[in-house]
Amino acid sequence: MINAYLTGEKVSSTSPDAFLLFEKSRFGEKKNSKVEYSAVEALFLFSERKMNISSGKKILSEETLVKKFRRVDKKIETKFAVFSDLRRKGYIVKTALKFGAEFRVYEKGVKPGDEHARWILYTVREADNLNWHDFSAKNRVAHSTKKNLLIGVVDDEDDVTYYEVRWERL
Predict the structure, then answer these.
(1) Which of 106, 122, 138, 162 is catalytic?
(2) Residues 1-55: pLDDT tens digits?
(3) Which position among 34, 68, 79, 147 bears the catalytic label?
């Protein structure tokens, strides 16, 4: 079990198990002498009972954790549904803020750093509106980073459907 700590908006751990899981499955990012987790990574590990998260001396509940993360990211539940689905299917999923996207997704068996991500991923709820300008902008970002665009659509039951957009030369 990984013992992690929420400090401000960051979840991190110095637990040996955190470093082992990073090496094995690429959860988190090694920074200095700790492993830092994105909000969705921390929620996923918490929900899989692989991590306890404390704030001060208090161990947080899932409800409290989601509430804290929602203050910073209104889409946390949508992102969590997509992240969880892909991780359970064996993909490595990392944040993609520097690419202007929500996630980078790596092919099964690929470790970040060894190869580039194949997709950049955006998450939406089934009821959300996505206009052509938004779609075009997302597609341009994917193309300029030499990745395929993947859109994860989450329905009311938290099931996810994926749509992949690629460029074809005719």
Answers:
(1) 106
(2) 999 999 888 899 999 999 999 998 899 999 989 999 999 999 999 999 999 999 9
(3) 147
To the query of whether residue 143 is one of the catalytic residues in this protein, the response is no
Residues counted in the chain: 170
Catalytic-residue membership of 106 = yes
Q: Answer yes or no: 133 catalytic.
A: no
Q: Output the pTM of the full model.
A: 0.90
Query: pLDDT tens for residues 141-158?
Result: 888 788 889 999 999 999
Q: Which domains does the chain have, with CATH numbers?
A: 2-72 (3.40.1170.20), 76-165 (3.40.1350.10)
Q: Which of 58, 116, 146, 163 is catalytic?
A: 116
Residues 6+ away with beta carbon under 8 Å from 46:
52, 53, 62, 65
